[in-house]
Amino acid sequence: MDIYSRIKNDHDCHRAMAEKIMQTSGDSSERRELFEEYKNDVVAHANAEEQSFYAILIEDEKTQEQTRHSVSEHKEASDLFEELEEMDMSSSGWIQKFKKLKEELEHHMTEEEEEVFDMAHKVIPKDKEEPLADKFDRRKQDELKDAA
Ligand SMILES: [Fe+2]
Ligand SMILES: [Fe+2]
Question: What's the pTM?
Answer without folding.
Answer: 0.97
